Amino acid sequence: MTPFVAPPAPAVQHLAGRKGAARIALIPPPVLAALNEGLLPTVNLNEFLALDLPRLATAVAAHVGLDHKAERLVDTLAMLPAFAPMRRHAHVARALYDLAADHPARDAVAHALATHPSDVARCWAAQWVAFSGLPLADQLQAVTRFAADPHFGVREIAWMAVRDAIATDVSVAIDLLAGWVHDEDPNLRRFASEATRPRGVWCAQIEALKREPWEGLPLLEPLRADPSRYVQNSVANWLNDAAKTQPEWVVAVCERWARENAGESTRYIVRRAQRSLQGRAD
């Protein structure tokens, strides 16, 4: 099998600029077919939820040069209904990872998956980082391309893929991510904040940062006046997480930032960061 070769652009180009359907039932059949064949990225949650995962996984496996009829993959796809939706993706990613392990062109397979037109396929590639067993520094290097991916879904999976490794050694993670908060790409700056949120979403909590959120200041301070709203929201959510366990500290940080930075970016962050505290007061 040969690695993926993108189809001619005209085949799906007319579908690329679509607005996502408001309901799953309204997704046009040609769009759903192209999504399930791995020819298009999803554009909203409805498209993501409408995917025929076994069909997509089978197509992607063939695209990247893996045996789409291999018992390891077939068995995994057969048992997917037994798992929650997001866990299904982890199982597909693991099956593809295991199939690639003994492939004579493993690096080519990995590259084909990481650059696949389907955002879901690239999410599976990002999850491979979590399976690698590499040291955290190497995991962060490997996940960078996914953290900078143009698709929002891939970027979310990118930080989730290294979340457990970060939680295992928070101080090392903060040191390694210190350079990320100065990157010119707002997606990478946001990754450093989002990956270390004390509570986060759809992920394990980082107990060390719930207890001592001030340990995260080397990442937060450089972002307190970030021009990107995408980054601002993440920093505010980071502090809002911390306010659940260390409210006085969050108030003190927000008051200091407001004194030292008069710009709208900082005002937005400190206002949003204290929304849970304000709710309690009300």
Task: Describe this structure as you would to a colleague.
With 282 residues, this protein is mainly α. It folds into 2 domains: 1-119, no CATH class; 167-282, ARM repeat domains (Serine Threonine Protein Phosphatase 5, Tetratricopeptide repeat), CATH 1.25.40.290. It contains 18 helices and no strands.
What's the order of the H and E elements?
HHHHHHHHHHHHHHHHHH
The beta-strand count equals: 0
Q: Strand share of the residues?
A: under 5%
**How many angstroms separate the termini?**
62 Å
Average predicted confidence as pLDDT: 94
Radius of gyration using CA atoms only: 21 Å
Give me the number of helical elements: 18
Judged by helices, strands and strand pairing, the structural class is mainly alpha
Number of individual domains: 2
The backbone outline, from C-alpha atoms, is globular
Biggest sheet architecture:
none
Question: Would you identify the regions where 5 or more consecutive residues have pLDDT less than 50?
Answer: none
In short:
With 282 residues, the protein is an all-alpha fold.
What is this structure's SSE topology?
Blueprint: H1 10-16, H2 29-36, H3 45-50, H4 53-63, H5 71-78, H6 85-101, H7 106-114, H8 119-131, H9 136-147, H10 152-168, H11 170-177, H12 186-194, H13 207-211, H14 217-220, H15 229-243, H16 247-260, H17 264-273, H18 275-281
Helix pairs in contact: 5-6, 6-8, 8-9, 8-10, 9-10, 10-11, 12-15, 15-16, 15-17, 16-17
